[in-house]
Amino acid sequence: MLKLRRFISLALLVSMMCSVSCSNTDDNTKDTSDNSTLTDTDHSTSDTTAKVETAGYYDELSGLDFNDYTFTIATYNSDKNGWNLYLTAEEASGDLISNAAYKRNTEVEEMLNINIEARKVGDYETLFKNAVLADDGEAFDLICFFASGQYGSYITENLVYDWQEVPHLNLDADWYNQSANETFTIAGKQYFGVSDLTFPVQQNASIIFNIDMLEKHNLDSPYDLVREGKWTVDALNSYIKDIYVDANNNDLADENDSYGLVGAVNVFGRIMASSGELEITKSDAGFKLNLFSDNIVNIFDKIRELYNNEATLVAADGNVNINTFKKGNTLFCLYPSDPALLRDIQFDFGYLPFPKADESQEDYITEAIGGMMAIPQSAKNIERTGAIVEALSAGSHKYINEAFIETYIENKVLRSDDAVEMFRLCRDTYTYNFAFNIDPAGLLASHKFYAAILKDTTLELASYYESQREQITTAYDSLWEIAEGND
Predict the structure, then answer these.
(1) What's 59-202+370-416's CATH class?
(2) Which residue has the higher pLDDT, 275 or 44?
(3) Which one, of 359, 305, 354, 357, lies nearest residue 332 by Cα?
(4) Best CA proximity match to 274, nearest among 220, 335, 199, 325
(5) Contact predicate 231/356, CB 8 Å
(6) Are 72 and 117 in contact (CB under 8 A)?
(7) For 371, which of 29, 157, 202, 445 could close a Cys bridge (C-beta 3.0–4.6 Å)?
(8) Calpha distance 122→23 (Å, rounded)
């Protein structure tokens, strides 16, 4: 009998959301603990006045003195929202990442004679924008954004500085994300940057899997498929095809049954990104829509097959998605982002990148979210701003990155060398998607273009593309023209 399986009921949604404090978007599933349980009682933090080591990190910044200036960062309230950026930190907190942030800040503050302050408020974007519009050049020196969002207004209102014109920024350095540099450059101007200053909140989509269920069904581990370049959409489909079980024999697909895959509808669109087909591409002449081609049709057919598989449960959102997986009756989960929520899983689980379109695809592609920053157009001393952003970014590369990966991800979240290997593979293949974060049309962000077709069985890719093409093209052409005219 064809089971009535699709969306988890509202009652289940409410009960699950009570169990975890998360974002209400499909993609920004998150933890609000700020990793506060990550402690290390074996490391001494008493030596806080050690001589500053500048070699290799701050070579171009030696000798600068900014006269006790307070460098102010606008950002969200991580105490309420989670996703701790570790912009400021107290001495000897017992939190390893916080301790690393304290070392970084102390080093930079002493080297440049500055103070670092983070203003964490609910409406931080409005405060930042108002300060720029009022030409208040010292209210804020930098803004660090919450996860993913829609930031096109910073371009259209000419609110932020071109990173390529900021003195002291070495954008080719290891502490800047090169994909972000390219993605957020429009008409020769880079409006946003991603550096290791925001490393703890740079997250990625992944696929997690229940190792106990894998063994129960006598399935081979997918890790070797990844290493051999054979982890594809077809491979994922083959894993889940025979997994569905109506566990309570009620002829209804519900939360008590066994599934091969769970995922929120928008997250299925990330497979298009991992297949190398981003919704918008760029050239020196402007934006180009990339929503319809023979290859895109082929990939989308595979995504739709996965979505419509009897063994797939489509979750109402990212929160329900992860909570469903935690029940232990789902083999795979299209997991949107934050690794913190994986810590309390009560069974053995594995970690994988999103799949390739097919084996001919050369590399895995991991869609990155979070970590975006901008510098106010109203900055009064752009040399000072650049020097401090550079120092904090380099210092984060020096102290934060490995503290986050080695002491948190590898020792507190993931549970095997295989999983750690996959996590590092994802980090190494980060790709920022312009339309995911800047969508003037309002039709592409969070892969909503593909989600709309998946949710509506009457829609086809070709006809839906034709119905939306003009509106999307007009919006992106307008954005490009505005960017070209910005000073």
Answers:
(1) alpha beta
(2) 275
(3) 354
(4) 335
(5) yes
(6) yes
(7) 202
(8) 14
Task: Dig out the tokens for 132 from the structure.
Answer: 């720029």
Which stretch of 15-19, 23-27, 248-252, 480-484 has the lowest confidence by average pLDDT? 15-19
Position of tokens 């954004």?
145
Instruction: Give residue 82's pLDDT.
Output: 61
What was the pLDDT predicted at 92? Answer: 67
Ranges in the chain annotated CATH 3.40.190.10: 10-29+203-369+436-485, 59-202+370-416
Q: Which two three-digit tokens encode residue 389?
A: 């952003």
> Taking residues 451-460, what's their average pLDDT?
96
Kindly provide the b/e burial profile for residues 198-236, where b requires at least 16 CB atoms within 10 angstroms of the residue's own CB.
Answer: bbbbbbbbbbbbbbebbeeeebeebbebbeeeebbbbbb
Token representation of residue 394: 């380099």
pLDDT, average across residues 122-128: 93
| Three-class HEC string of the chain | CCCECCECCHHHHHHHHCCCCCCCCCCCCCCCCCCCCCECCCCCCCCCCCCCCCCCCCHHHCCCCCCCEEEEEEECCHHHHCCCCCCCCCCCCCEHHHHHHHHHHHHHHHHHCEEEEEEECCCHHHHHHHHHHCCCCCCCCEEECCCCCCCCHHHHCCCECCHHHCCCCCCCCCCECHHHHHHCEECCEECCECEHHHHHHCEECEEEEEHHHHHHCCCCCCHHHHHCCCCEHHHHHHHHCCCCECCCCCCECCCCCEEEEEEEHHHHCHHHHHCCCCCEEEECCEEEECCCCHHHHHHHHHHHHHHHCCCEEEECCHHHHHHHHHCCCEEEEEECCCHHHHCCCCCCEEEECCCECCCCCCCCCEEEECCCEECECCCCCHHHHHHHHHHHHHHHHHHHHHHHHHHHHHHHHCCCHHHHHHHHHHHHCEEECHHHHCCCCCCCHHHHHHHHHHHCCCCCHHHHHHHHHHHHHHHHHHHHHHHHHCC
Handedness of CA 160, 166, 168, 172 (dihedral sign): positive
Q: What tokens does 246 get? A: 């109506």
Residue 12 reports pLDDT greater than 60? no
- pLDDT on residue 41: 33
Residue 50 reports pLDDT greater than 80: no
- Give the whole-angstrom CA distance, residue 404 versus residue 370: 15
Distances from the Cα of 267 to the Cαs of 70, 131, 319, in angstroms? 41, 36, 12
Task: Give the Cα separation of 215 and 81 in Å (integer).
Answer: 37
Cβ contact 100:399 at 8 Å = yes
Fold of the CATH domain 10-29+203-369+436-485 = D-Maltodextrin-Binding Protein; domain 2 (3.40.190)
Which residues are CB-neighbours of 327 under 8 A, at least 6 positions away?
A: 255
